[in-house]
Amino acid sequence: MLYNILCPCDNADNEMKKEPFINLKGYVLGNPLTYYGEGNYRIPFAHGMGLISDELYESLMTKCNGDYLTPNQSNTFCLQDVETFKEVEFYLH
């Protein structure tokens, strides 16, 4: 059972109504979003996993200065690169 590997608790405790109850689904999922700015790590992660080219990664790093979630709207080069990344990311899902 997956829970036995991930959770050092016994599911029988929940079934026997012992308190405190443990929400095993929440324990397994964790918190998928810890803070707002973590979306900026999607591009370095994609590059590290080989999902985007070195050229696109370096262009994003140079033109966007690490801010991919809220790029400066007057920086058209950054906006183009972010849009290219979004197109690539769409095909990865």
Automatic annotation (TrEMBL):
Family: Belongs to the peptidase S10 family.
Protein origin, superkingdom: Eukaryota
PANTHER family: SERINE CARBOXYPEPTIDASE-LIKE 19, SERINE PROTEASE FAMILY S10 SERINE CARBOXYPEPTIDASE
Entry protein name: Serine carboxypeptidase-like 12
Gene Ontology MF, one: acyltransferase activity, transferring groups other than amino-acyl groups
Cited Pfam families: Peptidase_S10
One GO term (biological process): proteolysis
